[in-house]
Amino acid sequence: MLLIPCPWCGPRDDIEFHYGGEAHVVRPPVPDAVDDASWAHYLFKRANPKGVIAERWMHQHGCRRWFNLLRDTVTHHIIAPYKIGEPTPQSDDA
């Protein structure tokens, strides 16, 4: 069980949240102008790094707000939550 800190509601059990994938993935500015291979790469290819990564989460059974979270994918250690639009917090673990 993970205890995920929602920026609005505070720490809650991970069962209350929905994982939204990697944060800060840049969408192509004009999707209609992108070829199929590039569009498939945008939709399905992620770096899947080992270590600290910024992720998107939604507090589905709480405030229903999306936020970002720095988490170590190896240890599942949660470093810091931050609201969408805020700068990514610095991590000593990165």
Radius of gyration (CA) equals 15 Å
The CATH superfamily bears the name Folate-binding superfamily
Mean pLDDT: 93
CATH class: Alpha Beta
Helix content: under 10%
CATH hierarchy: architecture: 2-Layer Sandwich
What's the arrangement of strands in the largest beta sheet?
Answer: 3-4-5-6
Q: What class do helices, strands and sheet pairing give?
A: mainly beta
% residues in beta strands: 35-45%
Measured distance between first and last alpha carbons: 23 Å
Shape: globular
Q: What is the element string, with H for helices and E for strands?
A: EEEHEEE
Main pleated sheet: 4 strands, antiparallel
Low-pLDDT residue spans: none
Tell me what you see in this structure.
This protein has one helix at 36-44, and strands at residues 3-6, 10-13, 18-22, 52-58, 66-72, 78-83. The strands form 2 sheets. It has a 4-stranded antiparallel beta sheet with strand order 3-4-5-6, with no helix packed on it. Strands 1-2 form a two-stranded antiparallel sheet. The radius of gyration is 15 Å and the shape is globular. The protein starts with a strand and ends in an 11-residue tail after the last strand. It contains 1 helix and 6 strands, in the order βββαβββ. It has 94 residues and is mainly beta. 10% of the residues lie in helices and 35% in strands. The chain has one domain (3-28, 36-83): Folate-binding fold, CATH 3.30.2270.10.
